[in-house]
Amino acid sequence: MNPSPLLPLFRRHWLGVPMVFVDTETTGLIPGVDGVCQVGIARFEGGRCVASNAWLVNPGTPIPAEATLVHGITDDMVAGAPTLVDALATPEARALMQGAQPGGYNTGFDRSMLPHGFGGTEGSWPWVDCLTLVRVVDRFARGKGRHRLEVSCERHGISLPKAHDAGADARAAGELFFKLALIQPGDAEDVHTLGELLTWLEGHRIDEWARFTDWLSQQPPLPDQQTA
């Protein structure tokens, strides 16, 4: 495997590394089955958004009504749109991604919907996930949906005028990430380089998953899982 082109950035201070926050709107939630109908990219340098764009994308499959209810995108709107691969190959998209560390909000999903090697990164290269940071900073927040992007943005004073618009969501995720990252929560005092940041985020993601699975194991079985 070829080393990632981002490897030279690994030991740079994370705030000096360009980052692109990416968001997708889709026809559904199943990678490999559902498709992307909008992609948004926001580039941050020094913690500030310097450029952003969003593209409607032809997903190659009909958009279900329940998906349109979420993001407002219809089949007619994407009928003449480029494919996802073609949209990401445009000079505008390539310029946004050039030499930047990828990130997003709940990146496992968006990353699974994007082409392999998006942004020049290999599949094993970690992304910056704002959701992980939110779960650390707002660990004691309560309420259903407390960690949704729009709820987290409202809690921390980040403008998100149109949730479930890929361009707006990408920019808001980046702005929220930098606002919270600069707080340096608790055990993040020794996080300086990009490598340290990625390691710190991955450690907290694993801890969160362990807590969730522990909680899940203590829940009573669902009715159809109970033996007679």
Fold and architecture overview:
The chain is an alpha/beta fold. It has a single domain (12-214), classed as 2-Layer Sandwich (Nucleotidyltransferase, domain 5). The protein has helices at 65-71, 75-78, 84-88, 91-97, 107-113, 130-137, 149-155, 166-181, 194-217, and strands at 19-26, 36-45, 48-56, 101-104, 128-129. Strands 3-2-1-4-5 form a five-stranded mixed beta sheet, with helices on both faces. Helix 6 (130-137) packs across helix 8. It is globular and about 50 Å long. The model has no long low-confidence stretch (mean pLDDT 92).
Strand order of the largest sheet: 3-2-1-4-5
Radius of gyration: 18 Å
Q: Let me know the CATH homologous superfamily.
A: Ribonuclease H-like superfamily/Ribonuclease H
Instruction: Give the CATH topology.
Output: Nucleotidyltransferase, domain 5
Average pLDDT: 92
- Binned, the helix content reads 25-40%
CATH architecture descriptor text: 2-Layer Sandwich
Q: By helix and strand content, what is the structural category?
A: alpha/beta
Low-confidence segments = none
Distance between the termini: 52 Å
Supply the number of helical segments: 9
CATH class: Alpha Beta
Give a count of the beta strands, DSSP E runs of length 2 or more: 5
Principal-axis shape: globular
Reported for the largest beta sheet, the result is: 5 strands, mixed
Beta content: 5-15%
Order of helices and strands: EEEHHHHEHEHHHH
Whole-number tally of structural domains: 1
